[in-house]
Design brief:
Blueprint lengths: L2 E8 L8 H11 L4 E6 L4 E7 L8
Antiparallel strand pairs: 1-3, 2-3
Length: 58
């Protein structure tokens, strides 16, 4: 799977706070098909757009 990471958020957000989901929703409202995935290695939520290279290559 290739994906471009738009933003990273630490998994330790305050209770009731969903910054990764809020960021992804804002990107979707702008027409970008952003989703949130969990990176277990870095313990972070990543907002990604699938099918695009992270390094900007098309």
């Amino acid at each position: 799977m290739s994906a471009r990471v738009l933003e990273r958020f630490p998994a330790g957000a305050p209770r009731g706070s969903w910054p990764a989901e809020e960021y992804a929703a804002a990107r979707r409202a702008e027409g970008e098909p952003a989703t949130v995935v969990m990176d277990l290695t870095s313990d972070a939520f990543l907002v990604v757009v699938e099918g695009q290279e992270e390094n900007g290559g098309s």
